[in-house]
Design a protein that fits this description.
The protein is α+β, with helices and mostly antiparallel strands and 490 residues long. It is built from 15 helices and 17 strands. Among the domains are: 9-239 and 482-489, Ribosomal Protein S5, domain 2; 260-349, Up-down Bundle (de novo design (two linked rop proteins)). The structure holds 2-acetamido-2-deoxy-1-O-phosphono-alpha-D-galactopyranose. This is N-acetylgalactosamine kinase.
Length: 490
């Protein structure tokens, strides 16, 4: 795959790995959920589903807000997933979508001959819009080979919503996989990831490809170092065996697609890239939108890049007029060429801070992977401590330079610090989850106890009533790396 201008990737063609349909084993842990969903499917549609799709959420261990700049990340798939029960109906072209949580997510019907994604002006997309994005992705990728084949689908998701664990991408990716299968298309996991990443644009988010890549490439037992450049590549990384990763949800929800914060950061990174490319005298500066492309064009290493930023982006705040003057464009050109639908209102741009975060964070990802490899080889006695330090630095940078933390997230981080546990906000931020690294399973138990006592037991009544009955197990839990997307036939 090669990178395109959106920071996602396109397939070049290498070792193909398709999502092969498999039989559900009687002892499989997912049987309970599959049976419940299949029963719901039968109740809704009066027949059994033809196949089941499972696509996981993810937790990113390190490498935040760097994927759309072309830099690598280090996530792992979690057990929380989206399940689909699907039946194809070649006799019509109807999409019938039902959610197991009917009261919260109303069913949706549409004719696939006239598929349209209508986004509300405010409040964020409806749940089924994410699904439609995935269908549209396959429709576009198949072009004239697309057939509007009817699909009946029942959905069951337990990835926490708007919490930085990639619930929206799991939904989009599951729709891509189900639609590809109904269309009779056997697709390589990386191609599916690439299509899914591209689809996210239909919802209005200019995301990178991290969530979709790990949703397909995840493998039980290891995290993945995901590179986007020069082509999408996932390398399994063995996390230190004695460490235990814990996810804690602040319960401050952030619906990325309902706000412009995420796209604002993307725009600031793209503007900073162009600014620096112009300063470096690159004739095609306008077309260079990702830091990684600039790094490559100028053959810079991480340190040289950091110096370039510090020397050329000296102000802590740039106004529209500063950007226009530097890039030699009018304000109207700035809006039409460089800003996007929900960032056109921006007046100030923190180019220096955003650029420094991205470049330093990408350095931390490389160091994290190297230390994990050294630890796996029995080298580097200080390695474990260094990993913790990198996680703390990452969080500090996200809070100070990227400004994407949240007071509730900070309370979780403060408790983690008191417990001497390294933790950081994971995913896009502005709320959502933290990921913490504990020294052992026992240490993780103690840490979780402390979080329950000092954070969760103090929640407002309505949240307490919802989460206390199951001892907060859905909001704070230890997690292990799981498999990526799977397709089961009955
Ligand atoms: P989440 O946590 O799912 O909102 C988002 C982006 C990622 C990445 C992270 C920040 C989407 C679908 N996902 O993740 O690509 O940029 O933020 O590292 O937009």
């Amino acid at each position: 795959m090669t990178a395109n201008g959106n920071g996602t990737a396109q397939v070049l063609g290498a070792g193909i790995e398709i999502v092969a349909p498999q039989k559900l084993q009687p002892e499989s842990k997912i049987n309970g959920r599959v049976q419940q969903l299949s029963a719901f499917f039968k109740q809704q549609f009066g027949a059994d589903p033809d196949f089941i799709v499972r696509v996981p959420g993810r937790v990113n261990i390190i490498g935040e807000h760097v994927d759309y700049c072309g830099y690598s990340v280090l996530p792992m798939a979690v057990s929380q997933s989206i399940f689909l029960a699907v039946a194809k109906n070649p006799s019509d072209s109807q999409l019938q979508l039902r959610n197991l949580e009917e009261a919260k997510f109303t069913g949706y019907d549409a004719d696939l001959k006239t598929l349209r994604i209508e986004l509300p002006k405010s409040g964020g997309p409806a749940w089924y819009n994410y699904f439609l994005c995935g269908i549209k992705g396959i429709q576009e990728s198949l072009g004239s080979h697309w057939k509007p084949i009817g699909m009946r689908i029942a959905v069951d998701g337990n990835v926490p919503l708007a919490a930085g664990l990639s619930s929206s991408s799991a939904m989009v990716s599951s729709a891509v996989l189900a639609t590809a299968h109904v269309q009779g298309k056997k697709l390589d996991r990386r191609e599916l990831a690439s299509i899914s990443a591209m689809c996210e644009q239909y919802i209005g988010t200019h995301s990178g490809g991290m969530d979709q890549a790990i949703a397909y490439l995840g493998r039980v037992g290891c995290a993945h170092h995901i590179e986007f450049h020069p082509k999408l590549k996932g390398t399994p990384v063995t996390l230190p065996a004695d460490k235990c990763f814990v996810v804690a949800n602040s319960l401050a929800q952030k619906n990325k697609a309902a706000s412009s914060d995420y796209n604002e950061r993307v725009v600031e990174c793209r503007l900073a890239t162009r600014w620096l490319a112009k300063r470096k005298g690159l004739i095609n500066w306008e077309d260079i939108v990702r830091f990684i492309d600039l790094e490559e064009a100028c053959q810079m290493d991480n340190e040289t890049f950091e110096k370039l930023i510090k020397d050329n982006l000296t102000k802590s705040n740039y106004m529209r007029a500063d950007i226009c003057k530097e890039l030699g464009v009018t304000e109207q050109e700035l809006e039409t060429k460089f800003l996007s639908a929900n960032t056109r209102h921006m007046e100030q741009f923190k180019l220096r801070q955003r650029a420094l975060h991205v470049i330093q964070e990408s350095g931390r990802v490389a160091k994290f992977r190297k230390i994990c490899e050294e630890l796996a080889a029995g080298a580097n006695k200080e390695g474990a401590k260094q990993l913790g330090e990198l996680m703390r630095q990452s969080h500090e940078s996200l809070r100070e330079l990227y400004e994407c933390s949240h007071p509730d997230v900070e309370r979780l981080i403060a408790i983690s610090n008191q417990q001497n546990v390294s933790a950081r906000v994971t995913g896009a931020g502005w709320g959502g989850c933290i990921v913490a690294m504990c020294d052992s399973i026992e240490a993780a138990d103690e840490y979780i106890k402390a979080l329950k006592r000092d954070y969760y037991a103090q929640l407002p009544t309505h949240l307490l009533e919802r989460h206390q009955p199951n001892n907060f197990s859905e909001v704070v839990f230890a997690t292990l790396p799981g498999n990526g997307a799977e397709l089961y036939i009955q």
